[in-house]
Design brief:
alpha/beta, 4-stranded mixed beta sheet, 38% helix, 25% strand, SAM-dependent_MTases_sf, Methyltransferase domain-containing protein
Length: 377
C-alpha cells in the first residue's frame, strides 16, 4: 500500500483522475450509499466529508440534511473544481457561496492530516468546525499508520455531542516480527510494514452500445458490472472488524456497527458453476487449482475463497503447525499475486481492443477486505 501524507503526494497520486473521478470509482458507489445509510442523517445536521473526491457522499449527504451544513474536503484541487462541482450540479446542488442554504455545499482544499484542520475548516467555510457526522470512506487506508491515531483524535474533537464518524478501514496483515511494545499498539497504527488483503475482483464490461459523459466532458463507454469473484474467506473480514474496534478504543471511541466492504455483489446472480467440492479439492495440486481458475468464465457472482486457501496451504510446508498470523499472511500474499496477474491480463487485452476501436471488452479491479464502521464517543 502506498501511503500519502503531504498534499504534493496526494496530488501526484490522483491528479491524472481529475475529470473522471466518479467514472473510475464506479465500483465504490455502493459503499457511498452504505455509508449514508449507516450515518442515519437527519435534516439540519452538519456533515464533513474528508477525501470527498468526486462528491458522491457530499451530494447524498446534502440531500439528506437539507439546509444543514455540508463540507467536502480534498487535497486535489481538480477534484473540487471539476468532478465534485459537476456531480453536485447534476443533483441540483451548488458550490458555496452560490445557491440557497438547501443547495449549498462547501468544497475546501486541504490536507486531512493537517494538525490545524479545525481552524482551516472554520476559516474556509465561515462556520464552526463542529459536525454531527464525519465521513472518511476509502481514505484512511492511504494515511501513514503512524499518523492515524492522531488523526482519529482530531476527528473526535470535531464531533458535536452525540456525533459519529463513519469510516472505512482495510484489514492489515504482516509477516514481520512484532516487538513486545508494538503488540500493545493497535494493528491499524503499527508502523511495521503490513499488507492489505484482496477481498474480491470486480469484472466490468465496457458497453458496446451505451455511453456516458465524464465531468471533463469526455464521452466514454458505460461500465457495466458483469462478474465478481470473492477471493477472501469471511474470517478475514472478522479480523478487519476487530482491528477497527481496537483502533477506536485506543482513542476513546466505541464501535457501534460495522458492515463488510469488498464483497458487494452488485446485484449479480450467483452462477451455477461452483468450485470443486472439498473432497476433490483436497486431492488437487496447486497447478491443477490454478488451471481450473484460469478456465472459468468470470461472469456472475462466484466464491473462490476456498480455492485460494487451498493454494496457500500448498505453498508452504507444515501449514497446519504454522501460527494463524503466518497463515493469514501467506493466504493474502498468494491471492495478491494471482489477482495481479488476472487484472493485468484483462487490462492489457482491453487496451488492445480499445486501440482497435472495439468495445465489449472486460476490465477488472480488486477490492480490499475492509469494514465500514460507525464510531461514537
Amino acid at each position: 500500500m502506498v501511503y500519502l501524507s503531504t498534499l504534493a503526494q496526494v496530488r501526484a497520486a490522483y491528479q491524472h483522475l481529475v475529470g473522471k473521478a466518479n467514472y473510475v470509482s464506479h465500483d465504490q458507489t455502493p459503499d457511498a450509499l452504505r455509508a449514508i445509510q449507516m450515518a442515519q442523517l437527519q435534516p439540519g445536521e452538519s456533515v464533513l466529508d474528508l477525501g470527498c473526491a468526486g462528491g458522491k457522499i457530499a451530494a447524498l449527504a446534502k440531500q439528506a440534511v437539507g439546509s444543514g451544513l455540508v463540507v467536502g474536503l480534498d487535497g486535489v484541487p481538480g477534484f473540487l473544481a471539476v468532478d465534485a462541482t459537476a456531480h453536485l450540479a447534476s443533483h441540483g446542488l451548488t458550490v458555496a457561496p452560490a445557491g440557497d442554504p438547501a443547495q449549498r455545499v462547501h468544497l475546501v482544499k486541504g490536507n486531512i492530516t493537517d494538525g490545524n484542520i479545525s481552524k482551516h475548516l472554520a476559516l474556509m467555510t465561515g462556520e464552526p468546525a463542529c459536525y454531527n457526522v464525519i465521513f472518511l470512506v476509502h481514505v484512511f487506508e492511504t494515511i501513514p499508520p503512524e499518523q492515524r491515531c492522531s488523526l482519529l483524535k482530531r476527528l473526535k474533537g470535531l464531533l458535536t455531542p452525540g456525533g459519529r464518524i463513519v469510516i472505512s478501514m482495510s484489514a492489515r496483515f504482516t509477516n514481520e516480527p512484532i516487538a513486545s511494545l508494538e503488540l500493545q499498539i493497535p494493528v491499524q497504527f503499527r508502523p511495521v510494514p503490513h499488507t492489505e488483503a484482496v477481498g474480491s475482483v470486480l469484472v466490468t464490461t465496457l458497453s458496446p452500445d451505451l455511453s456516458e459523459a465524464t465531468a471533463d466532458g469526455a464521452v466514454v463507454p458505460a461500465r457495466i458490472p458483469s462478474g465478481i469473484v470473492q477471493t477472501a474467506p469471511r474470517y478475514l473480514w472478522d479480523a478487519a472488524t476487530k482491528q477497527a474496534q481496537a483502533a477506536a478504543a485506543h482513542v476513546g471511541l466505541r464501535l457501534v456497527q460495522a458492515a463488510q466492504l469488498g464483497a458487494h455483489d452488485f446485484g449479480l446472480i450467483q452462477v451455477e458453476s461452483v468450485p470443486p467440492p472439498p473432497p476433490l479439492l483436497a486431492g488437487m495440486t496447486a497447478l491443477e487449482i490454478a488451471t481450473w481458475m484460469d478456465r472459468q468464465d468470470l461472469a456472475g457472482r462466484q466464491d473462490w475463497s476456498q480455492l485460494f486457501e487451498a493454494l496457500a496451504c500448498r505453498s508452504v510446508s507444515g501449514w497446519t503447525s504454522l501460527p494463524q498470523a503466518r497463515c493469514d499472511f501467506v493466504l493474502v500474499n498468494e491471492t495478491q499475486q494471482y489477482v495481479a496477474e488476472l487484472c493485468g491480463g484483462l487490462q492489457e487485452r482491453a487496451k488492445q481492443m480499445l486501440k482497435g476501436g472495439q468495445r465489449g471488452c472486460s476490465m477488472a479491479a480488486h477490492n480490499q477486505v475492509a469494514v465500514l464502521v460507525e464510531l461514537r464517543v
